[in-house]
Specification:
Length: 403
């Protein structure tokens, strides 16, 4: 009996060893494929996006949740009552295909709604897509304007992708300031340095250091941990204690824990995309507003109504909670929120001055939060959760009634 038990144990250990050797070889020979296989959000990696000369990137038609045009719809209609334009918030990152606000809008109104949102896009790209959107002969076009990264992305479209060159500033002083800042460090190099990042191993709690050493050297442990995460994301409700424990290993994030609302905030990266002290962000802001105005002109010329909705960051939505229960937040958080509030102040003045129809979703999202229905996940993810998408769908339905 003991001999059989030892033999089985040896076979198990041998099998584990073979799997580990295979994973080690896989990770070394095909590191990119290995990284994608164990990546996080499946909607925004190489499996869903393909390069595009005009847009920089676009959704692939090969993803099972995408239609023949590459967009996240069940099918491509001959025409649509409503076309929605936006980034990952409109696409519906991190939620099921039934949850994005355009899909819920269709259910609520009974209208044919065609979703043309995709991650990493901005008003500059929406403008480039307007001819395609107008082919659906919509009565209404609804455009998302997001303060999280639209300003940075609009700068990228005009200055890195080579599109919308007619929107670049004609001010020599502004051009010179942009050139000088880009010479020191390009915006596309700087922004990633503000992303969430794990602390050095030696600065983490003891048990976390042990786990990190194992994950770094034992590929099978890495795979098992990723499978555990996927299971938890799909089948297990989020647990705040687990989330708080996980993000204690990170820098460039703020863990907020109020009596009813809890989340992980990322004001460092949000400030990078909203810092009006940076000439490139101001330029992206100007291009974003000009793009929205041009879209409105094109929609009106085609006989369609155009509605813009202002979508704030999770950080701004949580401002009142942070003020009440978090001492006003960190210095970086306060700077980020102040810049974002100024962006929205200037945006409203511009939209009203140019008679562009819009609505601000901030009060609605804050109301949901105050009522105990947080519109964002507890993790660092800044995308709307299913409840947040319902808030936006209800608001859009109300705004387009009668159009």
């Amino acid at each position: 009996m003991r001999t059989k038990l030892v033999g089985r144990l040896v076979l198990i250990l041998f099998g584990v060893g073979v799997v580990e050797v295979g994973l080690q070889a896989f990770s070394r020979l095909l590191p990119t494929v290995y990284g994608h296989a164990l990546g996080g959000d499946s909607h925004f990696n190489a499996r869903v996006a393909v390069p595009d000369d005009q847009l920089g990137h676009r959704p692939t038609t090969r993803h099972p949740e995408h239609d023949a045009n590459g967009f996240r719809n069940p099918s491509v209609p001959a025409s649509a009552d409503i076309v929605t334009m936006g980034d990952s918030q409109t696409y519906g990152a991190q939620v099921s295909p039934a949850d994005p606000w355009p899909r819920r809008l269709a259910e609520k109104t009974g209208k044919v709604v065609y979703n043309m949102g995709f991650g990493g896009w901005c008003p500059g790209q929406y403008l480039l897509l307007m001819p395609q959107a107008l082919k659906f002969k919509p009565k209404v076009i609804v455009t998302e304007f997001y303060s999280g990264n639209d300003l940075y992305d609009c700068f990228s479209v005009a200055y890195y992708n080579g599109q919308l060159s007619e929107f670049r500033t004609q001010s020599e002083a502004d051009q010179r300031e942009i050139r000088e800042m880009e010479a020191r460090q390009t915006l596309k190099q700087y922004v990633p340095t503000t992303y969430l990042k794990k602390k050095p191993i030696e600065e983490r709690p003891f048990l976390h250091r042990i786990q990190a050493r194992i994950d770094d050297h034992v590929r099978l442990a890495h795979v098992l941990e990723r499978l555990r995460e996927l299971y938890r994301e799909r089948y297990s409700p989020p647990d705040w204690d687990d989330i708080k424990d996980e993000y204690s290993d990170y820098v460039r994030c703020d863990i907020f824990e109020g009596p009813t609302a809890k989340t992980v905030l990322t004001p460092y990266s949000r400030l990078a995309g909203a810092d009006l002290g940076d000439a490139r962000i101001r330029e992206g802001f100007r291009i974003a507003l000009a793009s929205l105005k041009r879209m409105d002109e094109m929609a009106r010329a085609a006989g369609a109504s155009h509605v813009i909705f202002l979508l704030p960051t999770k950080e701004l939505v949580f401002k009142e909670e942070v003020n009440r229960h978090g001492g006003g937040g960190t210095e970086v958080y306060r700077r980020q929120v102040a810049n974002e509030e100024e962006i929205w102040r200037q945006s409203r003045a511009y939209l009203e001055g140019n008679k562009l129809r819009y609505f601000d979703s901030l009060p609605l999202l804050q109301k949901a939060l105050a009522e105990g229905n947080p519109p964002f996940p507890m993790s660092e993810d800044g995308h709307l959760n299913p409840g947040g998408h319902r808030v936006i769908a209800d608001a859009v339905a109300s705004q387009i009634m009668g159009l």
